[in-house]
Amino acid sequence: MSAVHPRPAAQEAGAPGTPTPGTPTPGTPAPGTPTPSTAIPGLMEAFWEYERALMENDLPAMDALFAPGSDTMRGDSSGLLVGHEAISGFRGTRGGAPKRRIVATEVRALGPEHAVVVAVTELLSGGRGQQTQVWVRNGGTWQVAVAHVAVSPPAFDRRVWRVVGDPLVPPAAPGILDGETVAVKDLYAVAGQRVGAGSPAHLAQAVPETTTAAAVAALLGAGASVKGMAATDEFAYSLAGTNTHYGTPPNPKAPFRISGGSSSGSASAVSLGHASIGLGTDTGGSVRVPSAYQGLWGIRTTHGAVSTEGLVPLAPSFDTVGWMARTPEVLEAVGRVLLPAAAPAAAFPGLRLVPGLLDLADGDVAAAIRAALDRWEADGPAGRIEPAGPIDPDRHRAWLKAFQAIQGREAWAAHGEWVGRHGDRLAPDVAGRFRLAAACTAEQEAAARQLAAEARAAVRALVGDGILVVPSAASVAPLARDSAAGGEAIERQRQRTLLLTCLAGLAGLPAVNVPLETAEGLPCGVSLVGAAGSDTALLAWAGRLPGAAP
Amino acid sequence: MSAVHPRPAAQEAGAPGTPTPGTPTPGTPAPGTPTPSTAIPGLMEAFWEYERALMENDLPAMDALFAPGSDTMRGDSSGLLVGHEAISGFRGTRGGAPKRRIVATEVRALGPEHAVVVAVTELLSGGRGQQTQVWVRNGGTWQVAVAHVAVSPPAFDRRVWRVVGDPLVPPAAPGILDGETVAVKDLYAVAGQRVGAGSPAHLAQAVPETTTAAAVAALLGAGASVKGMAATDEFAYSLAGTNTHYGTPPNPKAPFRISGGSSSGSASAVSLGHASIGLGTDTGGSVRVPSAYQGLWGIRTTHGAVSTEGLVPLAPSFDTVGWMARTPEVLEAVGRVLLPAAAPAAAFPGLRLVPGLLDLADGDVAAAIRAALDRWEADGPAGRIEPAGPIDPDRHRAWLKAFQAIQGREAWAAHGEWVGRHGDRLAPDVAGRFRLAAACTAEQEAAARQLAAEARAAVRALVGDGILVVPSAASVAPLARDSAAGGEAIERQRQRTLLLTCLAGLAGLPAVNVPLETAEGLPCGVSLVGAAGSDTALLAWAGRLPGAAP
């Protein structure tokens, strides 16, 4: 085994890094370097000019040193960018690269017009990385055609986790979840851990819990271990997964897109393979939306079916325990632990579809769902899908407003006092929601509760003893850039998602997200909404549907 | 911003991955792929054959698909391997690659004889990666000339950490360590955390601590936070850093080499930038050796100067609190918190060198130390370096044996009962040391204590009121491969290191590791051994020496 030993040729003026003893004289080939830089005129000058530009965040220079056109590529742990424009756009928003020094370079000519330079880097903040660049000579000028940048990762990804261990909490007893690892949304009490609720200000005042939430205790008692406390949108009051304090968890199934939330860290932990079970909560879609955005199996349970004891509330009228997994088998196994014992699933009930609900989804998502329904009709236990509804669009919008009013009143009852004292330390979007919540009157709440009762009855009637098919979210995961910029299109998309997710919330019904993929290969999902208490059967049925996403 | 959308052409028979809806017909260029694979005859066939070979760990096929010779490169997060032989050797020992599927490929021709293929991968266990391969056509056959492989990292590196948080424990009060983060060796009690001592069997029986060790509490009281519990050699009874249960922490300053131990996780956490302070212990070199191997500043304190309350003991006659940092400033700041208040440092005392001690170091290490001493004589506060000693080699070896006998007797007193019950769950090397310890008689201990008293007096006389210069370890960090294979050369190297490190241990004296570099650019270190109680001054002086490693 050999490793890279030669020190690089001394870095040029302006480049970072301190020349060290043993550094070869500039221009002298480092010992053992098979292709001395001097053999390729201009190449290393371009390399060091890029390094200078990178360290100084000199965007025009970096743009000029990358080959123009749609073929140019740059990849790192966030994902692969294709095309000069995409790369330039990324650079423009990241605010500079971490400071580093080059500790070794290896250069290889690839014919007369191409070369590859592999550089070993050391971040000034610690750790080592590698940068592989394929250079091309365009009209006498060397430019990067392909770049692959890797740095040593941080201790852990604070966008996903707040605390994580091997395990954080060991199992209390063996059971059917032996070997499974749980990412616990940072709303659940775990003995010895503080609860952060996605808010550094809340965390700072928290003391270690003395008891463990009922749902977590049940998982520990069935053989699972707790891997860690996973990120959440602040007080779970969002569906995006964006957390301005800790960052948005990555979505490995859809790079550069948001994770979905509020059970964002639990979802990403499962997507990333950090945990096998993502324990979350679902008030108005907080399990279903990240499941859909990240291609996971997920369940929101019947309201009241699983104890919420030891859980920071958002809106107790709608709050439910939910969880996510990469396979329907694990999703179902957790159900056997957390859900009330149920009789074996009866025959597969009919699937029902309200066509207007499919119309609330973007075309690519609706097409993926239609294709799945076709597969399920053609080959599977579901049989023919029955039309249901319609739901009057005006009533539907009124139901959502009622849901939001009740959610707001209850969120304010739970957190208003804290928000009153610390509201300036909330993220703007969450603070805005709490402000609206605070403005909602008791009279408005009463009217909302009437509407909610109407909606509950109507949705339960639509479901009957069958399964209502509802898009889990109106779209694929929005690009993080678009989500951050906000604007009307994003807000309309969010409203359409809420129209879809609020139905199970209002009706208190269970919903299982079946992960699907759009034609472009992006994750999306369809929810199977079942009758109250049908959770266990729903989990069994969902796993038997053919052709869900791999 | 654009990302990679096209699905790859269907994977060939035998290749992993499930064809998904939207997969283009085999042979048809995927939409948007600038260089269709069909335009480069044979390239994608070779790519998929490599993927098959990788998934089946078909070593001959992989060897054949990598270009022969010393120019070929393969890099991943472990480091960069140069040369076909080194790459083949690595593959032969890793036991196969993680299972994955290719979710997208991008192909670019680089002239007639070269091409680059960027593949986006999804691990079956979760997460997404990127593989960049530069291919070359050798005699009509495509072979990989350069490969860069990246996968999404695990939740955290269990070789470095057992539990880690953001923070794991917040500061108790503001102070001079505001913003600093501590990697706590998994021997210190931290309220709410279990102590693992590097042993899963020990951890399994541990209960959360109710109080925090004095040294950790002092750091928390001065503004530092605890980042996590860091790896240690099992019961701290080794200097290598290899832990068969959790793996050897990476050494980012010397890839493919061991971390040094037993404060291995604390050292690697600091090297990797995961924490700014690595809290460890030093009985017979457990701070000095990893500091030297990883290019860190480190201190072993005067025996008894810093409370060891709340610490799992190894050998209380020699056990000391120690710590590591990337800069002398941080090392010194920790000293201001943990060490007894001391008068301002007097004038720099003389440096003394026992030439025979330098001869115990490998040539590259001795040369680096000599070069440092030359710099310090030429330009710095140290002035001329005085020869001291000699130490009779036979007495020296007898002192080490005495050190080991006392260490063994005390380690057995501390852990013998546990080892008697659970010894089969210890790593072989640690179990072997405990067996030797158990065999040591009270008579042997008494004789050893006499020799130790002689050594203590002799070393203290050599140090006087000056500073004795001693190599921190006899060698650079051994290659992990060699360390694992063991053998006589490694054992002799280890004995020479112990001869060096036992001196401060026997004498109960403080020692600061000043990081240096060999001519090849590998970390090594020299210890400044000062008079008892001179710790604070030693820290100040060490930081003022010119030309330590960057």
Automatic annotation (TrEMBL), chains A, B:
**Compositionally biased spans, kind Low complexity:** 8-17
The record's region (Disordered) falls at 1-40
Which InterPro entries does the entry link to?
Amidase_CS (IPR020556), Amidase_dom (IPR023631), AS_sf (IPR036928), AtzH-like (IPR024507), NTF2-like_dom_sf (IPR032710)
Do you know which Pfam families this protein is assigned to?
Amidase, AtzH-like
Residue spans of biased composition, Pro residues class: 18-34
Q: Which residues form the Amidase domain?
A: 175-337
**Matching PANTHER family, A to Z?**
AMIDASE 1
The entry's protein name is Amidase domain-containing protein
